[in-house]
Amino acid sequence: MAAAGEERRRGSPQFGAEALGGRRCSSPEETTLEVSWVQGFSNKNFGFINNQTVCYSCGNYILFLDIKTKKTTALQCQTGQVGAFAVNPNCGVLAFSDRKLNPVIYIYSFPELNKLTELKGHIQLDYSLLAFSFLGPYLASYSSFPDFVLSVWNWQENILLCSESQPGVEATSMSFNPMNWQQLCFVTESSVTIWCIERNHDEHYLIQNPVKLPDRQGSLNHHKDLFFPYSCVEEPYHGPVMPVSAIAGLVGDEAETFVPRTDIKPSLHPTAHCWTATSDIYLGCKEGYILAIDTKKCSASIIQQKPLPEQMRKISDVLDYIRREVQKKKGGKPKALRRTVVFTMAFCNEGLYTAGIEGVLYFYHIRDLQYEMKICTDISEPISTLIFSPDYTILLIITDQGTIYSYEPAHGGEAVKLLNAFSSYLLAADFLTLGDKYCVSVTISGGVQVWLLENGTCLSMLNLDIEATAMACCPSSNSVAVGTKGGQIYFIDITKVEAPRVVHRSLISKFPVLSLHYDQSGQFLIVRAMEGYIFILDARPSKLFQVLGYVVLAGEVLSLSVVSDFKNNIVEVMVLLNVAEIQQTRLEIFCLSSTLMEGIDKYVNDQGMLNASAIKKEQYDLEYPLSSAVRLKDNIVYGYCTCAPFICKYNLSKQSILEDPPVFLSEKVIPSNQFGSGFICLSPNSRWLASAAKDGVLFIYDTSTMEILAQNYCHSYEGGGIRSVVFSLDGKFILVSGESDGALVCLKWKKIKEIEVKEADFHWHSLLTILNKSISDENAVLRCMAEWQIESESTSELVPEEKSKKSPLEPSNAAVTEDGNFTSLHSDSTSEMTWLCRKTEKVIREETERFANQKKELQMGIKKLHKTIQKMMHENEQVPDIEKLEQQEFNLDVEEQERAQVEAEQEVARIREKIEMEILANCYLQDVIKHECWDSMCVKGRTVKCFHIACEVENYPLKKRDEEELRTLEKVLHLRKFEAANLKVQKKVLETKSETILFKEEENTEEVMADDTASCCLVGSLSSQYGADTSILYHQLDLHSREQKVNQIVLLKDVIYKVKNAFNKEFDVVAQQKEQEIARIKERNVKIREILGQLDLQVEVWEPGLTCDEKPEQVLTVKDSEIKAEKYLTPQEREKAEMLTRLEMERHLASLDSERQRALNDMMGGVLEVTQEDILKIDIPPPYFISKPEDEWNDQEKKIFSEYEEKVKELNEEKEKYRRVN
């Protein structure tokens, strides 16, 4: 691949100070950066610039791919990210727009890459579409929000020919007719429009011709005449023909665009289109249809599939069955070959090629609105774009996953893969050891790519199928570590750059891995995780990437910097923390010695945490809030400030500390021209400091003087800025990846001081001298390691949220199997637990085994003590009361009990206060509602319900009319009287006497006819029959001015109020009648209950009543029966209630011991007067011998029995007389 700087000739886009908004380097003649190569992918905006070169946009660049040599050339947009993009292979030109305010369209030639012209319009924000005409120097552009303007340009003469605004219309595609540049197809998500460019001398006009699309069922007859719908009715209609808008009462613009809701049928949704050689259009739809559009008639027709012969139908069914089975094995839903969703299409003389989400390239041979379909090739990936080369020999297939294939229709066969790019945003990039030949990048979706550093050729790709969060290359071996969101780290062997492979995976914790850092010696891998956790791993493959321990810091870790001291064999780690307690950033520095790897057990506790004595922590609280910090070897620290655009310099050797509170002061503050959040990165030789931010501009500083050496506008603010920056070990290259533009940019020095090159080269060779032996040894071990299988890891990273929130130190008791989240082909379920969980579980298990005897003894002692106390309490119950102990005497911990009681009382007091506040709030809300909805109503809302039928009638709740409303009503009434008097005077003046007499006669005759009709038809209401006076209203046809309409509204409100008031009066009469009837029924029920009591009949008597709807004031009072909870009594109320109960009991006992009451009971049965009712209630007791047989009775007993029968007979006669009387 040729470098971008080498391919450009004079006039090609270069970076200068003007392109960077006035930013200037200190010495541009000595040090400058240039783009070496750019890699990236965009699944849109592709085009052939000639028969063997494809170009597409990526971030700030247009990339040109030679499909034969597979080399890439880059053209850089000087003003930021590339927006819309189009190519014209006939003229060898391309056009693209930038994404700044008031964007500009640039026209460049190929292969010279010279800028031909700039098209400047009046667009405010962005262009969404560009399209070249195949004939003539014409370019169409369409802008997005807020303009939505379609424009046609003559790009050679830089003239805007014509434009048309379409507010709110968002377009999806646009193209010129290849045979006629004066026709333009404009497609949105729900419509297709053919724009015709009419010309009159030098004037051009755009004429819009919308195409009527079928509905979703494929019907073409749903566009009926909506203006005169009766004209298409089969049954004859002899009345006046009126438009639908007139029937609806609409006028103006609404009348022309009105469509009844029942006639609205959603049409098809276009997805792709292409022109034919006959100036017609083929259109693909989301619903699976393919339409043929006649551009002359602007009509669409559905293309139907031609019936297949019997043999071809069987083959098609077999292929359909095979495809469904393959989809089932892949775990997806089976899809048929027919009715596929077309996402892209391309036309040639042989026929139509289409593709979609199924990943299959179809060929349609169309004749007379019928087609024959065949499968050309199966990509097995969703296809987004199909493009023919200008000579129609090569069909380019672009997938959503970032892969580019070439297909030759003339030869058939399978598609050939041209480029295997990445489908998601780049996460990070780094240089592979030795740092001068290869580099590695990783995407968020887990795709790892190996690039040739010389020209950016992609050598290989490995898909981990995980959500990656970090990546770093090891200096001591050709291994790459990739961190994931699930806390896993994948170690990849790239000793063979053409075949990378995963050799190990380490599951450290459930926390996501935020960043990975190797020290320069390649001994340690420092892992930054969530919650302030930093894990230390042995970076050497010979030690199987052993986890050494971890450190927990008090705060959120913002950034991490590693410095290797080769003389003392020590690695110093500097961590930048955001401490929430003090609202400041803090630097914490700890050391890692090589002795840690010799005997790690000496320096960690049982849970794996490194001892403080082993790492020698230091802390520095900083005066400014920083987002990133790096440390040099001479204790110099640079930090990127978040509150203002500047870089702070700290010297940790000098005690520059501000007391109260103790804050470490900065030695120097360097202003920065960048904006947005950013970070800084240090070169391996500590000579250069890179600063990157959201604006996308990369600044390189000299660390000794902090002067700007170079700058490069490699990414843009619209693309999210810069995500990562890394220097090569030899200092010759810089890899910069964007946040969300998908571009990986490799920069190299174009001009640099010779001394800078020598220093970087010397440092690189010195480092290689130290690492050569380690690299060879570790690579040998790495090659011998078995490949770790990742097929079963497709779902291993899906860690549930509730598990991820669990503390990493908490042991896991769930058994993990191969069907679980973390599976492995080389280990059992216990080894798939996190390293932290295994450590914690081991500590708990060892402690349980160590203290098992003590635990058992304690349990036995507690049981024995419990039995002793129970025995003592039982004995205490048996002794006399004078010898009994209180219950609290048996409490072993009185203080704990008192503390618990105090806490319980405090909690009760808190809850009581909370409840009281809630009650107070509810009381206030009750008062507000009562005032608004009850007190303010002069007529309360009520209902009248039937006794035995589920029917009810409601009245009209009315508010009292305020004084202002009454004054307005009185004013309008006086005005109406004046108008009536004025009209009467005018009639007297203008009419003659004879006409007046004639008018009176006619008026007398019309009054009789109008009594029944005028009140209903002309007045328009029956309110006059319900207590309202409608004579004061305006006639319906006399309302002309706005004042008359307002007055009519006031009068109508008064009529409505009077009608409601009249109804309420009748309602009150009916409600009063119901209350009287209820009182009458209750009076009768009293007598009925007495009779039922005399007859000893247990019959329920129906008792009518008024519900809350009929008597709404009942809702405002709460009865005791409605309260289900027991009433809470204060101690004073409880004491008063007990006293009243005691007095009532004493009074009752005293009444039982009264001599008067005893005499009354003995003499008269407890009553002073015996009524006849009481006598009739008395039953005569039978004789005592009634139980003996009658033949055993003596004469005396027979006489007594005859007297008993006479008394019973007399009593029954008296009862019968009493019943008849009452």
From TrEMBL:
Q: Where in the cell is it found?
A: Cytoplasm, Cytoskeleton, Cilium axoneme
Q: Name one GO biological process term.
A: sperm axoneme assembly
- Coiled-coil annotation: which residues? 885-914, 1064-1091, 1194-1221
**Location of the region described as Disordered in the Swiss-Prot/TrEMBL record:** 1-25, 795-827
Q: Recite the UniProt keywords alphabetically.
A: Cell projection, Coiled coil, Cytoplasm, Cytoskeleton, Repeat, WD repeat
Query: Mind telling me which GO cellular component terms the entry cites?
Result: axoneme
SUPFAM superfamilies in the cross-refs:
WD40 repeat-like
Where are the compositionally biased (Basic and acidic residues) regions? 1-10
Q: Which Pfam families match?
A: CC_Cfap43 (PF25828), WD40 (PF00400)
Write out the similarity annotation. Belongs to the CFAP43 family.
Q: What is this protein called?
A: Cilia- and flagella-associated protein 43
